[in-house]
C-alpha cells in the first residue's frame, strides 16, 4: 500500500512552499564557551570579595576576604528524532521528500521553536522563584494608556537597572503588548516608508527599543508560556496544563545562557544502514538553559517575568 504521507502527483514541484515561522529568538543567549567536567556537566566559578575598611594611620592593613565558589551545572534536555524515507517515495514525489527538505522543515518548525520554548519557560521559572522578580497581570491590562508605564516599571525592578545601564538586557513581549506599545501616547511615533516587492510602499511603525533595551515581539505565541510538556506521544512540546501565557520576559545575555552540549545530524543513504531501503535522517540535541547569579553577592537579579493571570 502506498505511503499516504507522500504526494504521488505526476506533476509536482520539487521545492516546498516557504515555511513561515519566526526564527529562533534565543540566539543572543546561546553560548559554547563552557568548560566540561564530564559528559553532561560544565563548571562555573563564582567569586566575591569584601570591601574597604577604615585605614589605621598607626600602621597595619585591614585583611579582606576572597570567596570563590565552584558550581557544576548539568545539561538535561536530551532530545532526538529520526525519519526513514523510502527510496521509491523520494523518486515518485520528484524528490520533494528529500532529506534536505525534511531537515529544513524540521529545523524551522520543530527545533527552533522548541529551543525558544525551553528558553522562555526555564528563564520564567527562575524569575518566578526569585522574590521580587515576577508578577501576574491580565493581558487586557496592557492597554495603550497603561503599557508604557508598566514596561518602564518592569525595567526599574530590583537590580535590572544595573544591566540596563550596561546595555545588557533584552525584553520579549507578546504581540498584544507590542500592539499596545505601538499606540502608547507617551511615545513619539516615527513612520517610515518601506519598499515592497510589488512596487508599492508599506508603513512600518513597530517599536523596537525602550530606554536602550531592545524590545522583541514574540509572534509565534505558542512558545511564550512559563511551563511546557515535552513528553507528548506525538513528540514536540505543548503548554503544560498549569501553564500561563507570558506577557513580558526580561533577561540578560550576561547571566542567562542556553548551553548546547550535543547537536548531531546524521544522514545515511540507502544501503548505508540496516533499517530499510531508504534514506535515514537522525537528529539529536542535548542542551539546557541556566541563569547564573551575579558576581557581587551571589544573588539572581537579571531576569523578570510577567504572566497573564487570566
Give an overview of the whole structure.
By secondary structure, the protein is α+β, with helices and mostly antiparallel strands. 19% of the residues lie in helices and 31% in strands. It is built from 5 helices and 16 strands. It has helices spanning 87-92, 99-128, 147-155, 160-165, 175-182; strands at 35-36, 41-49, 66-74, 77-86, 134-137, 170-174, 192-195, 201-204, 209-210, 213-218, 228-229, 238-239, 246-251, 256-268, 278-291, 304-308. Strands 5-16-13-6-10-9 form a 6-stranded mixed sheet. Strands 1-2-3 form a 3-stranded antiparallel sheet, with no helix packed on it. A hairpin with a 5-residue loop joins strand 7 and strand 8 (201-204). The longest helix has 30 residues, at 99-128. The two termini are 49 Å apart. Residues 1-14 have low confidence and may be disordered.
Amino acid at each position: 500500500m502506498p505511503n499516504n504521507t507522500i504526494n504521488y502527483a505526476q506533476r509536482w514541484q520539487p521545492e516546498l512552499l516557504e515555511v513561515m515561522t519566526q526564527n529562533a529568538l534565543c540566539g543572543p543567549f546561546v553560548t559554547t564557551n563552557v568548560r566540561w567536567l564530564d559528559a553532561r556537566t560544565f563548571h562555573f566559578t563564582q567569586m566575591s570579595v569584601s570591601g574597604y575598611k577604615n585605614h589605621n594611620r598607626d600602621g597595619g592593613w585591614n585583611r579582606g576576604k576572597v570567596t570563590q565558589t565552584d558550581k557544576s551545572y548539568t545539561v538535561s534536555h536530551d532530545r532526538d528524532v529520526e525519519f526513514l524515507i523510502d527510496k521509491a517515495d523520494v523518486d515518485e514525489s520528484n524528490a520533494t521528500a528529500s532529506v534536505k527538505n525534511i531537515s529544513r522543515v524540521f529545523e524551522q518548525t520543530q527545533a527552533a521553536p522548541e529551543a525558544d520554548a525551553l528558553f522562555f519557560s526555564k528563564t520564567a521559572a527562575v524569575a518566578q522563584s526569585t522574590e521580587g522578580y515576577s508578577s501576574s497581570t491580565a493581558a487586557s491590562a496592557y492597554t495603550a494608556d497603561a503599557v508604557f508605564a508598566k514596561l518602564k516599571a518592569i525595567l526599574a525592578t530590583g537590580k535590572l537597572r544595573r544591566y540596563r545601564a550596561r546595555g545588557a538586557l533584552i525584553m520579549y513581549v507578546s504581540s498584544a503588548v507590542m500592539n499596545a506599545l505601538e499606540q502608547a501616547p507617551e511615545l513619539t511615533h516615527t513612520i517610515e516608508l518601506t519598499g515592497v516587492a510589488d512596487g508599492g510602499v508599506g508603513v512600518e511603525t513597530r517599536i523596537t527599543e525602550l530606554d536602550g533595551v531592545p524590545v522583541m515581539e514574540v509572534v509565534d505565541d505558542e512558545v511564550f508560556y512559563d511551563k511546557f510538556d515535552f513528553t507528548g506521544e506525538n513528540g514536540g512540546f505543548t503548554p503544560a496544563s498549569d501553564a500561563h501565557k507570558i506577557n513580558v520576559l526580561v533577561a540578560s545575555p550576561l547571566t542567562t545562557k542556553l548551553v548546547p552540549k550535543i547537536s548531531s545530524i546524521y544522514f545515511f543513504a540507502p544501503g548505508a544502514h540496516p533499517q530499510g531501503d531508504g534514506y535515514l535522517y537522525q537528529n539529536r540535541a542535548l542542551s539546557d538553559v541556566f541563569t547564573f547569579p551575579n558576581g557581587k553577592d551571589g544573588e539572581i537579579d537579571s531576569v523578570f517575568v510577567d504572566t497573564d493571570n487570566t
